[in-house]
TrEMBL record:
The gene is Lsmem1. InterPro entries: DUF4577. Keywords: Membrane, Transmembrane, Transmembrane helix. It comes from Piprites chloris. It comes from the Eukaryota. The chain crosses the membrane at residues 65-89. This is LSME1 protein.
């Protein structure tokens, strides 16, 4: 593809000069708006007669992809939060079981201490009588 000249050379006729100036300014505007590597995509857009079908299809595809990704992220986040809540509830139940066992064991230990004290008193009293 031939690069347009940045110099404005007006031809002899006034009408042809106006058309050349407008065309040169349009080419200059395209060069300023689009870098060299995107000039190819600009040419393709001109070939589709400016309908923008490629752009609209790509934009719709990107929006759909974003929406699907967003929904999947929400579903995964919801699953993880539900799993964490489940683990918290399970841990709480286990802690309640352990604390109830500790309380019952504490009561058993206190009863054993009382029985031990009663036995020691009984042994001490029977030992002094002998």
């Amino acid at each position: 593809m031939e690069r347009p000249s940045l110099e404005i050379n007006l031809p002899d006729t006034h009408e042809d000069g106006k058309l050349y100036v407008v065309d040169s300014l349009n080419n200059l505007n395209k060069l300023n708006v689009c870098p060299d590597d995107s000039q190819h995509s600009l040419d393709e857009e001109e070939n589709t007669c400016g309908t923008g079908e490629n752009m609209a299809g790509s934009n719709t595809r990107n929006q759909c992809l974003f929406f699907v990704t967003f929904i999947l992220t929400l579903i995964i986040s919801l699953a993880l939060v539900s799993f964490v809540i489940f683990l918290i509830i399970q841990t709480r139940n286990k802690m309640d079981q352990i604390s109830s066992r500790l309380l019952s064991e504490k009561k058993n230990i206190e009863e054993l201490k009382k029985i031990n004290n009663i036995l020691l008193k009984h042994l001490n009293q029977s030992g002094t009588k002998d």
